[in-house]
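Recap from last week: sequence in, structure out.
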Amino acid sequence: KLLSPLFCAHEKDCKMERRTPPLRSRRNKVPSALTSLTACLLHLLPPGGAVASRVLPSRTTAAFLPPRSAASPPPRKARAVPSHGSRSTPLPSSSAGTVDGAGAAEEERYDVAILGSGPAGCSLAALLAADPSRPSVALISREADSRWIPNYGSWTEEWRALDVLYAAKGVGGLMERGVDTAWEDTDCFFGEDSEGNVGGDDGEGSFRRTLGRDYLRVSRTGLKDVLYGEDGSRKFDVIRENVSAAATTPNVFSPSGVLELRPEDTVLTTSESGRKIAAAIVVDATGAESRFTVRDGREKEGYQIAYGVEARVEGPGVTEEFVGDYDRNKMTLFDYRSEKWRDADGLDSARVKREPTFNYVMPLSKDVIFFEETSLVANPAVSFRDCKRRLTARLASMGVSITDVIEEELCYIPMGGDVPRPGQRVVPVGAAAGVVHPSTGFQLCRCLASNVQVADQVLAELAVDGAALFDPDAAAARILDRTWTPDAVRQRNFAVFGGDFLMKQNVDGLKGFFSGFFKLDQGMWAGFLAGWDGLPNNEFHESWWRRIVFGVTFLTKLPLAVGADMAGSILKFTLDEGLGLIQSVTPLAGEPAKYEDYIKFRKSVVGDEWAKTEAMDMYKEMGEVNKEEIDILKEMGGVNK
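Predicted structure tokens:
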């Protein structure tokens, strides 16, 4: 599950590891005095989270890593890198700041600057830095050294596949160092009777549906050690500051000057010291509710909410083999039953049925269990406090009580919405790019898999020989095209419908849905939960005809009432949301546009030459534009006389 941190219980000192390898140089023919004019023209383009988790401090142990050493390792030796051309003058800057009163800040030059230090940012930095071409990479985040807070879970099959992918790219150790606890099987409870059916006259049953698939808990510290590494051995630079800005529309940021878009690169200004970092490619890895990336359809998103607790337990329901109904040797993915506890003091029984939650259980040791009471997807979001009350009541109904809280977690995951708007210079990855599964909230494995493709394209863009061929806007579009290929967008549209359907279900609807879902062949349901190229079982969902086979087969497994509701929802969703769902399950309605197509279209449209020429003449008469600026605009194709 993706539970990426938005909050930290305390803040680390902002130390900086300063190593500034040279940017792969590209020519710069635009005079610095005209940079603002050029940037304004770039800004006149038409409009194209974040996942959060807060861990409350442990009552028994410190929950955070100690601060990193502030000592700076020796600089890397010079290395040969492919050149984009020669740079004879320093990078221009229209808003140079000062650092500690030392005068104008020098620009630090990198091939790639990555904003954010969660798994999305660190995995991309590690992949790029491990490449033999050794591009210069800066990871920019004030919280870079902080402990990763969320609990991440993964199917072992998927984690093993990622281990192979990353080892092939020079980043080994996901299985060896990135696993905390593993279980050989997974259980679910959907209130089914002994024959595996839901909705009988006898109320909720206690049938244990065993999935026959092993699961693991990712080691937060181990994964970060693999991807982030240690001071002195790390192959990318870390700038322990933040860049604070918000995109008001694609390529326009507030406050102005924090992100400066130039014809050949982008300059970032840090909020703490005013340092200026110039990069050919800037990547946004700051989470689902990023302020750097514009995504539409946010009002249609659902929210996965969860209260998690790692704790010691006791009570008559705690035995050597079980904690309540939960097998100590298995992970429990879903427990949607609620009849035995929803009338408990402090709970609204009608609300529990209307806004259902499930329990997600990881037995970690003989006396420590991780429980997470979770609302799968809802809008508006379910209350965190209500989730906590429900978990207490659920455990009490099984004769289990919590005696010692080790760690508590509040999980907030936006799901759904649109993919990023085209035409944006800053490249989003991970949750910022909308990679969170719209139906399930799974994201970590999808993010790590997608970043392998992203890294390949970044390296291809940096290998372009000659400045005249490097266009940061076109490069950004091609990189984003590796995340959201037309096929990936089709597959996502299918999952968006799934999330929309799940969001409106009550507890009986969700129990029926998942009872039918896990009666499918394992490859079918596993492929839907993964839903990403490069992950196991995606072959069952990667083409339109595979998805239609899945959909028809799934309908036959559902209880009649749930199946009828889904059939009607397909029609309503298509009428309300357009052809995205039809496009995902048929060859009709064309295919989603590529991001690069938008850039090509934008650059091919000249517009009304006469109107622009007349405007330039009038500005000239008013003394607002000088001859040098007109010459530059002629070079750019803006005027014809």
